[in-house]
Amino acid sequence: MEKEQKDNDSGEGVAKSTTVPFSVKGVPERARSAEWWRTVEPLWVTATRHNLTTALFNFYRCEAPWVSGDQFCVPAPPAPPPDARTLTPHLHHALDLLQGGGYSLALVWASGGLGGSRGGNIGGSDKDDMGGVGAAWRAVDVSLLDLQHALHDRGVANQTHVIVITNPEDASPPTPHHVTGSGQLREEQASPSPSTSTSSFGSLYALGPMFRAGEEVRRYTTPTDIYHLLRIALHLPPAPYPANHTTTHLQDFLVPSPSCCGRLLGVDSWLGAAGMLWWWWCGKLM
């Protein structure tokens, strides 16, 4: 960020981030289509346009992959975008639990999302929606920067990771290759629209020692990529190869809570040296 956030109550006093800015270079050939840009915008481009400084990664599925069975699903209707005042208390509550429980990772599932691409308000043509979506991205960014400031104040910034997952109605990138029932790849669509795509994407914000540099999304990411990020944060062994985009590798150390609504579940890592906090946030953000 070029300046500290002073325009939001929960963003006051947030230190400047040293995160490397996102880049829009290396745009895939298919994304050069004018039609594609009128219907959808990748989250890393959105992050660049709104000057977000927290690490951002794309993923897909409209619910946790170990809940959906790793099946494609249709995104839910857009939810009202959250604001920093809503997010910050929950993130700080996660921090309190981390510090008190000796965990090394907080994983927050935000089922409200940040608005929906199917409503045309992320990279869409409805200009009236863009201001609200931009404010939503900024609110999340402010909240995570505030959390980073709090982590430093508590002296745990170097050993704590916080990951926030939002609903996949946030964005819908171009449809990737799909495999037919016979195992053959279907023809790639040059300019698919969100209304015809069976893929659903969301966003994964990562804050912590392993994620401060930021990353640029250059390919389609999957639940196994989420596993890879969590594996890095928890210092776990590599996933067995091939991954095949199944839920097995996530379930090795992520056990779903028997009830959402904020139930907590700590699981020892394979190495026995790191733990994790699974915070299932099942309510709307507003």
From TrEMBL:
Q: Where is the composition biased (Low complexity)?
A: 191-200
Q: Which domain of life is it from?
A: Eukaryota
Q: Where is this region: Disordered?
A: 1-21, 167-201
Can you name this protein? Uncharacterized protein
Source organism per entry reads Scylla paramamosain (Mud crab)
